[in-house]
Design goal:
A two-stranded antiparallel sheet has the order 1-2. The protein is elongated, with a radius of gyration of 19 Å. The chain is built from 7 helices and 2 strands; from the N terminus they run αααααβααβ. With 130 residues, the protein is mainly alpha-helical.
Length: 130
């Protein structure tokens, strides 16, 4: 009986609550958007400090976004896009039932799905001026 208790507690170390899974998915999505922003900043030779100034915020706050310490809201992403001449378009896609199961491996299934498609497949970017 004790071995089963230890095994259950060990398994719990690697499982995530629905709230933790949602937070991780939000971080992954934010990272995708911010990677696009970062790539465009490099193409335009724009520093984070310059972007922060154009946004009317501090460079340290912007750094927290890029580090993943804070999540950008939609208004922040739109402002970044406008400053850089980008517009974002989001599409939804169905996840297969296997990847949607809640057996503790949902994150691994999402990562497998993500690795099979080109980066940013579900986030469209256009560089047309707005």
């Amino acid at each position: 009986m004790k071995n089963l208790e230890v095994a259950d507690e060990y398994a719990d170390l690697f499982s995530s609550s629905p709230e933790e899974k949602n937070k991780l998915d939000a971080l992954i999505l934010a990272a995708r958007f911010l990677e696009i922003v970062s790539s465009e900043m490099k193409q335009q030779n724009m520093t984070r400090k310059a972007l922060a100034a154009a946004m009317g915020t501090s460079a340290s706050w912007l750094t927290q976004l890029f580090r993943g310490d804070k999540l950008p809201n939609l208004e922040t992403l739109i402002l970044m896009g406008r400053i850089l001449g980008l517009s974002f378009e989001v599409r939804s896609t169905k996840i297969s039932n296997d990847a949607n199961s809640d057996n503790g491996s949902q994150i691994n299934n999402l990562r497998k799905l993500d690795s099979k498609r080109p980066p940013f497949q579900n986030i469209e970017m256009s560089t047309g001026r707005q």
